[in-house]
Amino acid sequence: MFAFVRVRHTAIAVLGVLAAAASIVPALAQSTEISIKQGVLIGSQDGNVSSFLGIPYAAPPINQLRWKPPAQAPSWSKPRDAKAFGPSCPQPVRNDMQNARQTAAQNEDCLSLNVWTSDPNGRAPVMVWIHGGGHRVGSGSVGFYNGTELARQGVVLVTINYRLGLLGYFAHPALTAEADPAAPLGNYGMMDQIAALKWVRDNISKFGGDPNKVTVFGESAGGASTLYLLATPSAKGIFSQAIVQSGGGLQVPKDLAATEADGQKSISELGLPAGASVSDLRAIPASRLVALQPLEGLGFGPFVDGRLVLRSPAQAFLTGQATDVPLLIGANSNEASVMETLNVTDRAITAFLGNREASVRATYGGAGISDAEFARQVFGDATFVGPARFIAGQAANGAPSFLYHYDYVLENRRDRQPGAGHGSEIPQIFRSWGQMPLASRLLTQQDNDFSVMISACWVAFAKTGTPSCAGLPPWKPYAPETDVLMELSPKSGPKANFRKDKLDAVLPAEGAVNGLRRN
Predict the structure, then answer these.
(1) Is 422 a catalytic residue?
(2) Which pLDDT score, from 0 to 100, does residue 472 have?
(3) Could you tell me which residues are beta bridge partners of residue 49?
(4) Cα separation of 11 and 299, whole Å?
(5) What pTM does this model have?
(6) CB of 416 within 8 A of CB of 344?
């Protein structure tokens, strides 16, 4: 695939306002206790919702466990305080005060998760959130991921941390030689996600969750991770449904050899020889590895290692090898809000289209559309909107898939924004605006009503496998022959052949398949 499209699975998942969200622990008045296999947890109570934070789901991936599959989680003999989030996985700190505060507590010992529940004695559906951030930044403790309001709607909500950047997605010949021939390697962040889901399977009933009704969901890199989980045989059976928010779908992952070469190049920048030993690699301070992870441009993410990840999500869906579960998938109307972050220029769009530029431009408005607007629309359609439609279509023959297009902008911002930015649906779904008191005061009644509706749709999907909710017309499964999606906007409703001419032009059927090759 072309360079600008190839970054879709590493897109930084935090829009401007979300990037400023702090890691907020609410002031809670009461304690609550739950006993799991590892030991007793002392959590917090907020009204009818209990939260248990910073629970380790795997051993600390440090020293000899760095760049290895996650090992068994530790146990404890005395009650463990679970009222504060665990540290974020090592990552660059973005240049804003709030985010610096969020990521200040970083440590390689970061494999923890957080649980919110309204009835520890119940058997509620479970939703497991995989955060975005380009596979190089982010945390399950971001304020907008607070699970209180979703838990109040009758689900158990889980957020997780997973290894990022060069600590999460890294290969080197020395590590390959060390690993057993069949052992997974390289995709450590994805291994962490699988380990967290297995922890949920084994423990969530103690929090009132149903281990047989688990929906995994995520946005941007978290959505892409969800697609890779769907494409990975060893992840089959640890979740029963999936939601992919702006996760792409036509990712073109590297193979092991290419990722090993990248790993050798990275350590050479730290002054180590290409033939560095495993001991040399594990002696590198985490801070030096993080320093090699820029916040802009190309990033990190899953690759085909031939052991855990066998193929790209698109290949898995095209060949019928993806896990067949109910799927909710879609993208936003202004995904181009991340173009600058990814260093995608108008020229990159032109290069992507090649000799198709003139015909595609004609479909998008010809001389009547500016270069900047043309680039904005093509980027969103080729990177997120079109791939979501492609995946929904490929999945339609099995368990139902539901396709959406998110186009809701807060009332007070509609005169300043060309559409719904990348990640802007997150606080609406989590109903977590209260984590940002200043922002919450800007909400109108329409904004609040919309948030109630879309949050209920996501919860309904987790409960029933169908995103039906009050305030929205019936949402039917997607079928390529009718090509009807649900537009989520101030005038929500089903839309037939949504942007069909543009999506067919920018990603024709043959191109979607041929685009699986790596350039």
Answers:
(1) yes
(2) 96
(3) 46
(4) 8
(5) 0.93
(6) no
Other beta carbons within 10 Å of 304: 21
Distance between CA 473 and CA 463 in Å, rounded? 18
Note if 220 is an active site residue: yes
Q: Which of 419, 435, 423, 427 is nearest to 490 (CA)?
A: 419
> How many domains are contained in the chain?
1
As to burial, measured by CB atoms within 10 angstroms (0-12 exposed, 13-18 middle, 19+ buried), residue 43 is buried
Residues 6+ apart with CB under 8 A from 369: 361, 377
Whether 373 is covered by a domain: the verdict is: yes
> Is 144 part of any domain?
yes
463, pLDDT greater than 70:
yes
> Which one of 44, 205, 422, 432 is the catalytic residue?
422
Q: What is the pLDDT of residue 235?
A: 97
- State how far the Cα of 172 lies from the Cα of 266, in Å rounded to an integer: 10
Asked, for residue 519, whether it belongs to a domain, the answer is: no
Q: What is the mean pLDDT of residues 29-53?
A: 93
Domain with residue 396: its CATH number is 3.40.50.1820
516 band by pLDDT with thresholds 50, 70 and 90:
very low
Distances (CA, A) of 207 to 70, 119, 197, 204, 377: 23, 7, 15, 5, 44
The SS3 of residue 330 is strand
Domain span at residue 69?
A: 3-514
Is residue 9 annotated as part of the catalytic site, yes or no? no
**Residues 193, 497 contacting (CB under 8 angstroms):** no
Catalytic residue among 88, 220, 337, 492: 220
Distance CA 237, CA 401 (A): 18
Catalytic residue among 108, 219, 335, 425: 335
